[in-house]
Amino acid sequence: MEKIMLNLNSLATMLCTCDLYAYDEAALTNDEWLEVEKNLKVHGLNGPSSLFGLNSDELMDILDISEYSAYKIVRRMKSIQFFLKKLHEYEQQGIRIITKYDEEYPQNLIKKMKKSAPLCLFIAGTLPVKFEGISITGLQTVSKKEKGYVKRLVDKINNEDKWLISNDCKGIDQEAFHYGLHHHSQIICFVCENMLNKIQEYKKSIRMGKVVFLSAVDPAKRFTVTHAIDRNSYVCALSMFQIVVSSKINSGATWFTIMHNMHHNWTVSLVLDNDCFGNQRLLEMKTVPIYIKNIVSDTSFEMIYELNKKENIAFTAYEKGSTNKEATSENDTSFKEGTFSYKVTTDAENNGSIHSIKFQNGIATWQETYFGEYVSGNYTISGDKITVNYTLHKGFDQGTDLDYEEKINKTIIHTIV
């Protein structure tokens, strides 16, 4: 069993901010504690351990904090005996509490989340000081094909000696967790409920060093949506890449977390290029793709990212007449397969509507502007020019019982400059 090794700075942080279920005294909020830490630094004091022994007036005078914050600190300091008793009880159950003042605290959380990083973490197992983690996310409903993708991804994570970062959710994540558990994965599972039950269920795996459980909330607390949202963000911050196997547009925790991550840039989303509508929409939003061929290859995740992000070149296209489009790229003059955005107008001086075009395996696919139909054609690359040849099918009624179909052969030239 891991023993709790306390330093005074860590103890003071826990004592003032750890929101224990059994505690009557209110904890300082993240903002209140960050203000305390800032003022300790400004006044040249030696970290949170300097708070021990100060009364309410001294806290307000020296740290220039609010009366309520000072009141909460004093009340918490007086309850240190009760707090140490709770620490001991959790230690007997295999749970320790750590803060950023402990070497074991994951530095990625501080680096990526900054002020939003959890002040305290409950931990069961041995967390490495440094690690590279990858998370796999998706919908709760998992197809047979997607189960195969998940297995290959977990195998790839194992082969690269990386940690699987799990968020204890049903569906794709659960498939990855259970497969990894039986195939020698190293797993960090971030939970927001039932931590005590999880520890009992997987105590053998914890003892063997295969699984580490983390939580930012008291293990005795019940599930809340807020805790789940926070938990998902922490999983992103612990991951160097998050692989999206499936998603549903504007629906569910998976989509919300992806959008949240895109805003905060906690990690890089690698979106599986499959037939999932949500994933295709994410690729149109310029996320980096990961292809089936990548999953089964020996190419590392880092190299996959470097190769595929170059394919995701955004360019603007102007339609001149009816047969020519010119595209400009601000990012890269090279071209490979990928999904790109383009703007179609009748006049290069006017604004137009945004569309996307996908180049893959010699086939270009996009939505035809006027008729709104999806069109595909063959493309060739020569220097900085991408030439697409396709046949446009126009069907309409000429006033007879028969439909009239006109086939028009068209050529579009995209120029990358």
Produce a short descriptive summary.
The protein is an alpha/beta fold and 417 residues long. It has 15 helices and 17 strands.
Architecture overview:
- The protein has 417 residues and is of the alpha/beta class.
- It is built from 15 helices and 17 strands.
- The protein has helices at 8-17, 30-42, 56-63, 67-78, 80-92, 107-113, 144-159, 172-181, 195-201, 203-207, 225-238, 252-264, 277-284, 292-295, 301-311, and strands at 96-99, 120-124, 133-137, 163-166, 186-191, 211-215, 241-244, 268-272, 288-290, 315-320, 324-329, 338-344, 353-360, 363-367, 374-382, 385-397, 403-415.
- A nine-stranded mixed beta sheet has the order 1-2-6-5-4-3-7-8-9, sandwiched between helices. The protein has a six-stranded antiparallel beta sheet with strand order 12-13-14-15-16-17, with no helix packed on it. Strands 10-11 form a two-stranded antiparallel sheet.
- The termini are far apart.
List the defining traits of the structure above.
417 residues; alpha/beta; nine-stranded mixed beta sheet
Q: State Rg.
A: 27 Å
With strands numbered from the N-terminus, the spatial order across the biggest sheet is 1-2-6-5-4-3-7-8-9
Percent of residues in β-strands:
25-35%
Overall pLDDT, averaged? 82
Question: Which structural class should the secondary elements be placed in?
Answer: alpha/beta
- Overall strand count: 17
Number of helices: 15
Helix content: 25-40%
Tell me about the biggest sheet? 9 strands, mixed
Low-pLDDT windows of residues = 313-336, 342-354, 394-405
Spatial shape: elongated
* N-C termini distance: 62 Å
